[in-house]
Design goal:
Elements lengths: L2 E6 L2 E6 L6 H8 L18 E4 L2 E4 L12 E3 L13 H8 L9 H14 L5 H7 L11 H10 L6 H6 L1
Helix pairs in contact: 2-5
Length: 163
């Protein structure tokens, strides 16, 4: 079996994997980083979003061997150094941007990628960016409010209802 080496959440890791092992399975099963969820196995739900070299990637669409030598960030690496929630995570908590929580890691990782790329998105841009993430509980209003808050902007209730 091939050996794969990558940096995950700032720490070097190495493991033996079958060539067909998906990155999401390597993270969850080999590294025990279970915050990255498997929701659909068809790359449609976004529950498995991680950052690979700073870009949002659905970890169910990438083989672990493809991440050889790359930097991978998971939801476990999003917290502040002291373990407290980062601004996006705190905004999700403050604005009730979650219910069951299953989609939340992927939503937070997508939001982080969006805000890195576009620090002050419009509500329409937030909704457009989240198109690859499915939430079956919230109706997205509070998720959008949370991301807007994390960007330092308000999301007026009237605008949420029009979106």
């Amino acid at each position: 079996m091939p050996t794969v080496t990558m940096t995950v959440n700032g720490k070097p890791v190495t493991g033996e994997v079958e060539g067909r092992t998906l990155l999401v399975d390597f993270l969850r099963n080999d590294l025990r980083l279970t915050g990255t969820h498997v929701g659909c196995d068809t790359s449609q739900c976004g529950a498995c979003v991680v950052h690979v070299n700073g870009e949002a990637v659905k970890a169910c669409t990438m083989f672990a061997v493809e991440a050889e030598g790359l930097e991978v960030g998971t939801i476990e690496g999003q917290a502040n150094a002291d373990g407290s929630l980062n601004a996006i995570q705190q905004a999700f908590q403050d604005h009730h941007g979650l219910q069951c929580g299953f989609c939340t890691p992927g939503m937070v990782m997508s939001a982080a990628a969006l805000l890195k790329e576009n620090p002050k998105p419009t509500m329409a841009e937030v909704r457009d960016y989240l198109e690859g993430n499915i939430c079956r509980c919230t109706g997205y209003h509070n998720i959008v409010k949370a991301i807007m808050a994390a960007s330092g902007q308000d999301a007026p209730v009237a605008a949420l209802n029009d979106a």
